[in-house]
Amino acid sequence: MKRLLFALLLLFPLLTFADKKGKREMRKEKELVGVVTGAVCGIKHQFCSHPRGEKYELLGILDHKRGFFYIANVPQDILQKFFGEEIKVEGKVHRERATIIAERILKGDNVVWEGGEKTPSTPSNPK
Questions:
Q1: Contact 100, 90 (CB under 8 A)
Q2: In 3-state terms, what secondary structure has residue 125?
Q3: Residue range 17-45, pLDDT digits in tens
Q4: Strand segments (E) across 1-127
Q5: Which of 22, 75, 119, 126 is 20 to 30 Å from 9 at the Cα level?
Q6: Would 1 be classed as within a structural domain?
């Protein structure tokens, strides 16, 4: 009986830690607000004034509070249109990988990209 009690006392901190980790994961971030910039500057928490090597530069979003994040499922040519501009990306943020899987991108109040397609009413693609 004493061994069982001792074993439970040893496992108690592990069970408590696992519960806290699960609660932390439930509070995942769902959006980033920042400037579209290249990875070379973004990982240094700086904004590039122009894309270096244009087609070769990996573009993402520099959120001033959270850092640089790569937008995994959005084509680079769409991000290129908004280079240097502030956007809001809604989706699933993977902080440990510095990546966001975008559900939609907003510029101001206008949706400029959603679920894999450009919306037809964007300023860069008028009707």
A1: no
A2: coil
A3: 554 555 454 457 799 999 999 998 999 99
A4: 31-38, 59-63, 67-71, 86-94, 99-107, 110-114, 117-118
A5: 22
A6: no
> How many domains, in total, are found in the chain?
1
CB 43 within 8 A of CB 58: no
pLDDT tens sequence across 45-58:
998 877 666 666 79
User: How many CB atoms are located within 10 Å of the residue 65 CB?
Assistant: 7
3-state DSSP assignment of residue 25: helix
Q: What is the CATH number of the domain that holds 103?
A: 2.40.50
Residues 6+ apart with CB under 8 A from 119: 111, 112, 113, 125
Of the two residues 11 and 93, the one the predictor is more confident about is: 93
Give the domain range for residue 78.
29-118
pTM listed for this prediction: 0.69
